[in-house]
Design goal:
Blueprint (H helix, E strand, L loop, with lengths): L1 E5 L3 H12 L3 E5 L11 E4 L2 E4 L10 H13 L2 E3 L4 E5 L2 E4 L7 E3 L5 H6 L4 E3 L6 E4 L4 E5 L2 E6 L1 E4 L3 H7 L1 H6 L12 E11 L8 E3 L6 E6 L11 E6 L1 H6 L5 H16 L5 E14 L9 E3 L4 E3 L9 H16 L1
Parallel strand pairs: 1-2, 1-13, 2-9, 6-15, 13-20
Antiparallel strand pairs: 3-4, 5-8, 6-7, 10-11, 11-12, 14-17, 14-18, 15-16, 16-17, 19-20
Helix pairs in contact: 1-8
The protein binds flavin-adenine dinucleotide and 1,4-dihydronicotinamide adenine dinucleotide.
Flavin-adenine dinucleotide binds next to helix 1, helix 4, strand 14, strand 18 and helix 8.
Length: 325
């Protein structure tokens, strides 16, 4: 059975790795320069910067076992950041006992490890699909990428909807998956400071505050040393400023940071990144994954399973199980 997987993020990689282990013929396509998706660290001369996922936790037993495997192989490391939270706009200590992981040396490392033995085509945006009732044909810029017995979409909801217009016309039930936006945006900004304003490595935002997260990158293995602070704006703020340009977002990030420290800052913004599809809309239902045998079609991804890295992995693994039945 030949299977095409669109998307080499955690969900697509987990699905591909399971299927290849079962002897299936799998080809993965991703439009990015490398695998990882939203688990993405930007390489800079001073080290990596995590612009997307910041860390991940493991609650499910199977994912915990997977994390142990990655730990032994050196693909991930434990992050023991000193934690704080905002309380009425004031930074207060907030330590806990949770175990948190980061990719090593970059966030995409565990995804790359899953895809080690998989046929992967990066830099390849799939922009058209055709289904003849038995086989799917994939196209990129008018060029056929081949025909496959099964198709898996492991991409964010809004991008899947664009590709699936034809399948939706064959099976209007699929429409319900796209009735509500599953993923909300997030602006990420990296700020370089002369010295650390706080004795912490990660700060959780609070409801109503424009910032949802701040993290000192140098506290993670392989990341930029020095005072590089990665800021995430909340979903509400990011939605409001979705079409703003980077210079405006940079200014707002410095203002928000200055308000938190309460003193003039010697700070410079080095990167601004807009994630259009970032974090789970809490109102979106959990499907786990979706498999439609009559269409030889599967969908996986964090957006179908409650967001988070762990849930993306679980969604991909669950879909692989369905495809092997
Ligand atoms: P993705 O990672 O989005 O993978 C989809 C892939 O599909 C991408 O590589 C993309 O390039 C590719 N693609 C899309 N369309 C096409 C196409 N037409 N053709 C070819 N390829 C295509 N989770 C946590 O657990 N902890 C965190 O701290 C955390 N923080 C986050 C912070 C931010 C700013 C963001 C954006 C996300 C964060 N997350 C966090 C969520 C986590 O990153 C995701 O849950 C997880 O990485 C999603 O994996 P996925 O495989 O479902 O999707
Ligand atoms: P987790 O268990 O560390 O955090 C879950 C939530 O619990 C946090 O968002 C925070 O509100 C709270 N929390 C945890 N520890 C805390 C502490 N010591 N002090 C104060 N509050 C604390 O991790 P989990 O469940 O694996 O979630 C991953 C993280 O990824 C979350 O912080 C989530 O918000 C974030 N995320 C961000 C996205 C974005 O686009 N910015 C997208 C997806 C996830």
């Amino acid at each position: 059975m030949s299977i095409a997987i669109i998307g080499a993020g955690m969900a697509g990689a987990a699905c591909a790795s399971r299927l290849v282990r079962q002897g299936q013929q799998v080809t993965v396509f991703d439009k990015g320069r490398s695998a990882g998706g939203r688990m993405s660290s930007k390489r800079t001369v001073q080290g990596y910067l995590d612009l997307g996922a910041q860390y991940f936790t493991a609650r499910d037993a199977a994912f915990m076992a997977q994390c142990q495997h990655w730990l032994r192989a050196g693909n991930i490391a434990q992050w023991q950041g000193r934690l704080a939270r905002l309380d009425n706009g004031i930074v207060v200590a907030s330590p806990d006992e949770s175990v948190r992981f980061v990719g090593a040396p970059s966030m995409q490392a565990p995804v790359a490890a899953l895809l080690h033995a998989v046929s992967l085509h990066t830099g390849c945006q799939v922009d058209q699909l055709a289904f003849d009732g038995k086989r799917w044909q994939l196209f990129s810029a008018g060029v056929s990428l081949g025909q496959f017995n099964h198709l898996v979409l492991a991409i964010p909801q809004q991008q899947a909807e664009q590709l699936l217009q034809y399948a939706i016309s064959l099976n209007p039930e699929l429409n319900q998956l796209f009735a509500t936006p599953a993923l909300l945006p997030c602006w990420a900004v990296n700020v370089t400071l002369a010295h650390s304003p706080w004795p912490y490595d990660g700060i959780f935002g609070e409801t109503g505050h424009p910032l949802s997260w701040l993290a000192r990158q140098g506290s993670k293995p392989g990341r930029c040393q020095g005072e590089h602070w990665l800021l995430h704006f909340s979903a509400a703020f990011s939605q409001q400023y979705l079409e703003a340009d980077s210079s405006e977002i940079a200014k707002l990030a410095l203002q928000a940071l200055q308000q938190l420290t309460g003193e003039p800052l010697s700070a410079k913004v080095s990167h601004c990144h807009r994630w259009r599809y970032a974090q789970q809309n809490p109102a979106f239902p959990h499907y786990g994954m979706v498999y439609r045998p009559e269409l030889a079609l599967g969908l996986a991804g964090d957006w179908l399973n409650g967001g988070r890295v762990e849930n993306a992995w679980l969604s991909g693994v669950q879909l692989a199980r369905e495809l092997q039945r």
